[in-house]
Amino acid sequence: MPVRELTEADLPAITRVAHLGLEFDEINKSLIREKTVDAKDYDPNLGLLWEEAGEVAAFAQGAVGVKKDGSQPGYVRIMAVHPAFRNRGIGTSLLKEMEARLKGKGCTAVSIMDSPNNYFMPGVDFRYTEAFCFLQKHGYEMFRENHNLICDLDLNDWPDLDSQIAELAKEGVELRRAVTADGPEVHDFLEAHWPGWHAEVQGALDNDPPTLYIGRHEGRVIAFSGYQGNNKSLSWFGPMGTLPVLRGKGIGGILLRLCLRDLARQGYRKAIIPWVGPVRFYARYSNARLDRCFWAYRKNL
Predict the structure, then answer these.
(1) The pLDDT of residue 219 is above 80
(2) Cα dihedral sign for 24, 26, 29, 34?
(3) Of the candidates 2, 95, 143, 249, which lies 20 to 30 Å from 46 by C-alpha distance?
(4) 211 — phi, psi (to 5°)?
(5) Do domains 3-145 and 154-268 have the same CATH topology?
(6) What is the pLDDT of residues 18-70, one digit of tens each?
């Protein structure tokens, strides 16, 4: 079977396969690098590549998660088959090999693409008809629907943002860009309220400058909002959160807009708000609209 583990030298080839095979997605080499060889949880044993007649025909990158109960869910973070090599059993063989390797690492189930840490997309775009048929054929069941929003950006948006920050400061609420030294306190806050977001928030803190804003009140972190902590080469917003007892003061809306303003200053004219829960919040504060719909698939091994 012409499967081998992918290496950094394969990045141009697998980027091309992803570009051709995932036509509804924005693909670049930096993004593919982030999802494969540069991932903090990168396991070369789960980076698989299929060669056919000397050409890269398909690739897949897997990952193993850890839940609080000790279980280890398996994920196919990203997978693509070159259109010219489809319907030859290549995708099937590659998926079966990935399933076997994940099972060998203790995973009892595998999900497609909705890996909480360093995810590419929160599931499979419902427009990928071939993927729908492929996954159904191989015993995967859709268990959740996820959505991305998109919003327009303009450098002239929200001219009163700084004055709003000053008004909140009068109430003892400080809103500012995070610095590296904020990391321990931010992670303590996440652990208490949103433990699933450690990796993405750390990704934002690791950027230079950090792409994370925080809110502080009475000497403690009470809110945060970040961008480009995941999918760093895209106009990718999130995550964000505000303590429920302090909602309704506009804190979250201002933190959101600070991030969007930064993205506009980078030259982006649209921002992606992924894996959304509170659609009404984003529609209100950024005029965001529903954009893409994803189906999350899972299979027991």
Answers:
(1) yes
(2) negative
(3) 143
(4) -100, 50
(5) yes
(6) 999 999 999 999 999 999 999 999 999 999 999 998 899 999 999 998 777 77
Q: Taking 70 as the threshold, does the pLDDT of residue 125 lie above it? A: yes
Under 8 Å between Cβ of 264 and 155: yes
Is the full-model pTM beyond 0.90?
Answer: yes
Tell me if 296 sits within 8 A of 121, measured CB to CB.
no
- The burial of 216, by beta-carbon neighbours within 10 Å (0-12 exposed, 13-18 middle, 19 or more buried), is given as middle
pLDDT digits (tens, 9 = 90+) for 130-186: 999 999 999 999 999 999 999 999 998 999 999 999 999 999 999 999 999 999 999
Question: How far apart are alpha carbons 11 and 36 in whole angstroms?
Answer: 9
Sequence-separated (6 or more) residues with CB below 8 Å from residue 217: 172, 173, 174, 246
Enumerate the domain spans of the chain. 3-145, 154-268
The CATH class given to the 3-145 domain equals alpha beta
